């Protein structure tokens, strides 16, 4: 059974003699020019990041068989193209579990990784990945088809325990300890640094054990298993852990966040229930297609928040206040916010009180000409009057836009770009 579960570590290589991690099933290197070759002529006793990950896996799974896909150089540098190829290679080699302690925080890299991640998902490969050390949105760890992890930096969660998170702003599912006691070939014990990377191999071992129990597994069953096995009900300090990890809206006091957001903010008041997410999604897509890191935030009347980017939606439930938007800003590092409110004037007024909204869009098919506003009809608009204000050394238009057709989005987008530049 054990050799039927194939685990691969995508990293800077596994040097198997240092911690006696055993013979590697595959020992592959992907070069910067994307050449795939067998890894040869290396120091098998040299310490490396991937080697430490292998040692942690072996600590919990001594009889497991590992593979190594080396994409990082000695400075832990590599390209997103190497990562994309490594993911596809793992799927083709019938790898079941991928240990991934690396990723990208650059939003445009998602398009490069998208195809290979979908390929792995369709092949049934489960990826456990670490979020960045800055705890900002990371590809692929923050995506919904990944098991994303990070550490509890204050060490309240002990080795071998973890918290499972249903919905978090950064997309992470697991908070655990990155500290593990491992022994090298000389019999000398050492404790790994408590960092996000070293949570991954421990969670790999948990998912591996689930696979041994259930041959008919998938990502959803793995997440369900992790939730059931979590220590959520056993940790006395769980509230403070969650607050510091973006699961509660009371997190601003734990982070050095900005009081005022210095990005354009567009507020969409959607009075057409039939449109729901479509208008927001299409407008966000226009900005992102032009290489803007645009984040769409949909707010429902039940306080459920959907965060849109690319084709990815992260869900969150919590208080809607300035702390929330500051934290989203911190995690996603956006160029622009588009906030959509579905037919709820309470939240419309609340948002305008807590944020400096630059452009107000009303979606309403029953629109007449409005003085002191811009009226969009199809591809045309009439600019009657605009009020300029100077804020944060930038000039924005404080305007109202009335939209009565979804097909007006391309024309509206062109106008918004003109106003916001």
From TrEMBL:
Q: Which SUPFAM superfamilies match?
A: Subtilisin-like
Active site annotated at which positions?
11 (charge relay system), 49 (charge relay system), 197 (charge relay system)
Keyword Hydrolase belongs to the record: yes
Keyword Cell membrane appears in the UniProt entry: no
**From which domain of life does this come?**
Bacteria
What this protein is called in its record is Subtilase family protein
Keyword list, A-Z: Hydrolase, Protease, Serine protease
Q: Which Pfam families match?
A: Peptidase_S8 (PF00082)
Q: Which organism is it from?
A: Clostridium sporogenes
> Can you provide one Gene Ontology molecular function annotated for this UniProt record?
serine-type endopeptidase activity
Q: Which GO terms describe its biological process?
A: proteolysis
PROSITE patterns membership: SUBTILASE
Peptidase S8/S53 domain segment(s): 4-151
Q: Provide the family line.
A: Belongs to the peptidase S8 family.
């Amino acid at each position: 059974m054990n050799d039927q579960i194939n685990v691969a570590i995508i990293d800077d290589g596994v040097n198997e003699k240092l911690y006696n991690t055993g013979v590697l099933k595959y020992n592959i290197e992907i070069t910067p020019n994307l050449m795939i070759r067998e890894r040869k002529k290396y120091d098998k006793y040299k310490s490396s990041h991937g080697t430490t990950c292998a040692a942690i896996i072996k600590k919990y799974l001594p009889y497991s068989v590992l593979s190594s896909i080396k994409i990082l150089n000695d400075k832990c540098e590599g390209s997103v193209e190497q990562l994309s190829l490594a993911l596809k290679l793992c799927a083709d080699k019938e790898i079941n579990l991928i240990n991934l302690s690396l990723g990208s925080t650059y939003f445009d890299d998602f398009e490069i990784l998208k195809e290979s991640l979908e390929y792995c998902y369709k092949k049934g490969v489960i990826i456990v990945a670490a979020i960045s050390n800055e705890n900002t949105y990371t590809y692929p760890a923050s995506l919904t088809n990944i098991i994303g992890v990070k550490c509890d930096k204050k060490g309240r969660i002990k080795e071998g325990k973890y918290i499972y998170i249903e919905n978090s702003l950064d997309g992470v599912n697991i908070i655990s300890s990155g500290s593990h006691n491992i022994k090298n070939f000389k019999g000398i014990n050492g404790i790994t640094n408590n960092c996000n990377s070293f949570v991954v191999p421990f969670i790999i071992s948990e998912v591996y054990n689930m696979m041994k129990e259930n041959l008919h597994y998938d990502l959803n069953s793995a997440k369900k298993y992790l939730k059931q096995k979590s220590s959520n009900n056993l940790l006395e300090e769980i509230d403070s852990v969650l607050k510091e990890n973006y699961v509660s809206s009371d997190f601003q006091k734990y982070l050095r966040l900005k009081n005022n957001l210095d990005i354009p903010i567009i507020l969409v008041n959607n009075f057409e229930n039939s449109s729901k997410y479509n208008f927001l999604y299409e407008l966000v897509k226009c900005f992102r297609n032009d290489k803007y890191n645009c984040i769409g935030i949909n707010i429902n009347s039940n306080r459920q928040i959907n965060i849109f980017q690319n084709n990815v939606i992260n869900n969150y439930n919590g208080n809607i206040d300035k702390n929330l938007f500051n934290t989203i800003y911190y995690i996603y590092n956006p160029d622009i916010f588009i906030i959509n409110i579905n037919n709820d004037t309470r939240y419309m007024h609340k948002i305008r009180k807590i944020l400096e909204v630059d452009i107000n869009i009303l979606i309403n098919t029953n629109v007449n000409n409005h003085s002191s506003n811009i009226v969009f009809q199809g591809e045309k608009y009439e600019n009657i009057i605009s009020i300029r204000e100077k804020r944060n050394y930038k000039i924005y238009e404080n305007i109202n836009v009335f939209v009565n057709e979804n097909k007006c989005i391309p024309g509206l987008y062109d106008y918004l770009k003109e106003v916001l530049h």
